[in-house]
Specification:
CATH superfamily of one domain: Choline/Carnitine o-acyltransferase, domain 2
CATH architecture of one domain: 2-Layer Sandwich
Radius of gyration: 28 Å
Oligomer: single chain
Strand order of the largest sheet: 14-8-7-11-12-13-1-19
Structural class: alpha+beta
Low-confidence stretches: 12-24, 774-803
Number of strands: 22
Mean pLDDT: 87
């Protein structure tokens, strides 16, 4: 998602504490601190899991083992082979009357030791099994005998009842790839976009790097991989995100949309009440580890570490770098409406407030006639300012308005009750979706608290959305939460016939607390400057959202192709038609197969993809030739994707090598060259992870429409996409209006044409027709076509307001 923008602009500023310090001291110290942070996290998780009965295992398993030992002892059998007798001899002699108690204690101690040894053995065996990645490299749909055996063993050693963090101690560490392989793959990735002269020059720099610096830098990374949980993730978080001094808005945040074609209720307070209640239900399940871990192939677990910071988390600005503040619990949300801030409690003495009670509290805020205080309306624009500026202002604000600031930063999350409607409209469908995306990504520059882990945005017509800060976790984590929220508030909580939350109000609840800010004059001037910068940044973003309904995942599967690779190769064709050249393409994929893994880059602009694009533009090429080249491009992309997921990617390794070189003050022209490149096309797929929560056959409109992010380059595009059910793909495109080279709507048209042209290769030259979804509308002129027809299932799960 938005990480591409941060990765492109990252330029670490590392200094040694002393001029005469040995060059290797800073990096050794940093490696030591990385490991220390890792071990602190391990101890914290161990203690939490111990208190909740998750680790070492369920107390019932210990009780079962202890009971079995006691039964064997009663039957005059000694399963300990004499060890319990030796333990009894070591226990204090309390007299004859306590002889039986000594036996019970000896049995308990032996059971505990045996229990711990068995669990430790299981963890080690499972970690060894999870280190196998041969299954990932096998052709799609084919499974070898070793992989089948591996799956069976994983099932045996995984146990029956798994919880969110059950696998954390069994996940392998992310390997450090061979530096020779990384450089070779890098040169292969840039070959299609470089001239012969430039490529020869880059190859010479690479050979010089391998000869002079690579082995030393690689040694430090190997050392860190042995000592810390992950050799790259903590540096990625710090140097790409927390040390960035740019505005979070557009640069570091991304958005998630509501249902595209339906709104369950037009009542703003009711939608907010159900959504907040659903989010807090998710937090409750998270705290109790009742969320099931994500499993690939239904068996291979992914790391769950990023789930820890979804709620009660704020990114605190610093002059040189930010830090992430996470609270164990929070019993309130911060709410913004018409320039005023409120603190709304989410719990009473009896527990979590009902949706109807929360609706009542939000309605009280909407009905509150009190005016804003001077400059309070635009205060949140400071969170969109450059980070060093906001850090300096916050130090004054923390003194002048400590309680109000703590209420916002200490909230479970931030809620913005927007005074304007949003979402798809009949009158101008294309423009309305574009405005919806801009409202979620940037708002008006002063109505989001961009430091919070996420902002829940509720528009006046009942539409929802999220604005998510990127540093604490990646998109699949917030996407998982958002899927649960939409399904729960719509299908489980529901609404009454008049659009309100079910249940009854609670008149005895205290009024929401209005937050008051004492703002000195110097802060007011900073707010004005921050607002001006935020509006400039917001006004420069060009967003375009369109649902492609000609075909979807089901058609691609019938072609026996990977759906993601199909889109990525088609994007190369679309971008080439848009710009007339090939460019470095950033596609984000996860490395959560490993402990504390985050993301890796798939360099989707391959030689095979370029050959296919040229063939599509060459009128002399036949369709069978083009189809064969397309399959080769898809296979190459799949190979790159699998290599990246298995820890054999290019960019995170190069990033870590670059960080070490900066610590050592060791200049590398090759690494400088790598980080001078521009990613003019940044792409990401929004994964659908909990399809079981939605009934796409009976209620096809009730599916998430994904989200988007800002462009990675001033003259580039940001493109994300989501497969909505089997027959629709929704694209989210962004670019800068200030660029004369880009146009989001133009690229959208090229994407549609490219997908249709590729599909025609597999349908005997016929273009697929769009699936009817509703009333035909005249387009606004941004792109050709019409609003897809509105499809209804057998009935809506509740009253809905369309468009």
């Amino acid at each position: 998602m938005a990480e591409a923008h941060q990765a492109v602009g990252f330029r670490p500023s590392l200094t040694s504490d002393g001029a005469e310090v040995e060059l290797s001291a800073p990096v050794l110290q940093e490696i030591y601190l990385s490991g220390l942070r890792s071990w602190k996290r391990h101890l914290s998780r161990f203690w939490n899991d111990f208190l909740t009965g998750v680790f070492p295992a369920s107390p019932l398993s210990w009780l079962f083992l202890f009971s079995a030992i006691q039964l064997a002892w009663f039957l005059q059998l000694d399963p300990s082979l004499g060890l319990m007798e030796k333990i009894k001899e070591l226990l204090p002699d309390w007299g004859g009357q306590h002889h039986r108690l000594r036996g019970v204690l000896a049995a308990a101690l032996f059971a505990s030791c045996l229990w711990g040894a068995l669990i430790f053995t299981l963890h080690v065996a499972l970690r060894l099994l999870l280190s196998y990645h041969g299954w990932l490299l096998e052709p799609h749909g084919a499974m070898s005998s070793p992989t089948k055996t591996w799956l069976a063993l994983v099932r045996i050693f995984s146990g029956r009842k798994t919880m969110l963090f059950s696998y954390q101690r069994s996940l392998p560490r992310q390997p450090v790839p061979s530096v020779q392989d990384t450089v070779r793959k890098y040169l292969e990735s840039v070959r299609p976009i470089l001239s012969d002269e430039d490529f020869d020059w880059t190859s010479a720099l690479a050979q010089e790097f391998l000869r002079l610096q690579a082995s030393l830098l690689q040694w430090y990374l190997q050392l860190k991989s042995w000592w810390a949980s992950n050799y790259v993730s903590d540096w990625w978080e710090e140097f790409v995100y927390l040390r960035s001094r740019r505005s979070l808005m557009v640069n570091s945040n991304y958005y998630m949309m509501d249902f595209l074609y339906v709104t369950p209720t037009p009542v703003q307070a009711a939608r907010a009440g159900n959504a907040v209640h659903a989010l807090l239900l998710y937090r409750h399940r998270l705290n109790r580890q009742e969320i099931l871990p994500t499993l690939l192939m239904g068996m291979r677990p992914l790391c769950s570490a990023q789930y820890e910071k979804i709620f009660n988390t704020t990114r605190i600005p610093g002059v040189q770098k930010d830090h992430i503040r996470h609270l164990r619990d929070s019993r309130h949300v911060a709410v913004f409406h018409r320039g005023r801030f409120f603190r709304v409690g989410t719990h009473s003495q009896s527990g979590l407030l009902s949706p109807r009670a929360l609706e009542q509290q939000f309605q009280r805020i909407l009905d509150d006639p009190s005016p804003t205080c001077p400059q309070e309306e635009h205060l949140a624009a400071l969170t969109a300012a450059p980070r060093d500026v906001w850090a300096q202002v916050r130090s004054s604000l923390k003194i002048q308005a400590k309680d109000a600031l703590e209420a916002v930063e200490g909230a479970a999350f931030f809620v913005s009750l927007d005074s304007e409607p949003a979402g798809l409209t009949r009158e101008d469908p294309a423009a309305s979706l574009d405005a919806y995306a801009r409202a979620l990504l940037a708002g008006r520059g002063h109505d989001r608290w961009f430091d919070k882990s996420f902002n829940l945005i509720v528009f006046s017509n009942g539409k929802l959305g999220l604005s998510v800060e990127h540093s604490w976790a990646d998109c699949p984590i917030s996407g998982h939460m958002w899927e649960f929220t939409l399904a729960t508030e719509c299908f489980q909580l529901g609404y009454s016939a008049d659009g309100h939350c079910k249940g009854h109000p609670e008149p005895s609840l205290p009024q929401p607390q209005r937050l008051h800010w004492d703002l000195p004059e110097k802060i007011r001037l900073s707010i004005s400057l921050a607002l001006r910068g935020a509006k400039t940044l917001s006004g420069n973003i060009d967003c375009h959202v369109f649902p492609f309904s000609h075909f979807g995942k089901s058609f691609i599967k019938r072609c026996h192709l990977s759906s993601d690779s199909f889109i990525q190769v088609a994007l190369q064709l679309a971008h080439f038609r848009d710009r007339g050249e090939f460019c470095l393409t950033y596609e984000s994929t996860m490395t959560r197969l490993f402990l504390e893994g985050r993301t890796e880059t798939v360099r989707s602009c391959t030689r095979e993809a370029c050959n296919f694009v040229r063939a599509m533009e060459d009128k002399e090429k036949t369709e069978p030739q083009r189809r064969a080249l397309f399959r080769l491009a898809v296979e190459k992309h799949q190979a790159l994707l699998k290599a990246a997921m298995s820890g054999q990617g290019v960019d995170r390794h190069l990033f870590a090598l670059y960080i070490v070189s900066q610590f050592l003050h060791l200049r590398s022209p090759f690494l400088d060259q790598v980080y001078s490149e521009q990613w003019q096309l940044a792409t990401s797929q929004i994964p659908v992870q909990q399809i079981h929560l939605f009934d796409v056959h009976n209620y096809p409109d009730y599916v998430s429409s994904g989200g988007g992010f800002g462009p990675a380059d001033d003259h580039g595009y940001g493109v994300s996409y989501i497969f909505m059910g089997d027959d629709t793909i929704t694209f989210h495109i962004s670019s800068k209006k200030s660029s004369t080279k880009t146009d989001s709507h133009r690229l959208g048209q090229h994407i549609e044409d490219a997908l249709l042209d590729v599909a025609s290769l597999f349908q005997e030259g016929q273009r697929p027709k769009p699936r009817c979804r509703g009333l035909q509308e005249e387009d606004s002129g941004h792109r050709g076509g019409s609003l897809p027809c509105h499809r209804r299932g057998s009935g809506a799960p509740m009253k809905s307001t369309n468009f």
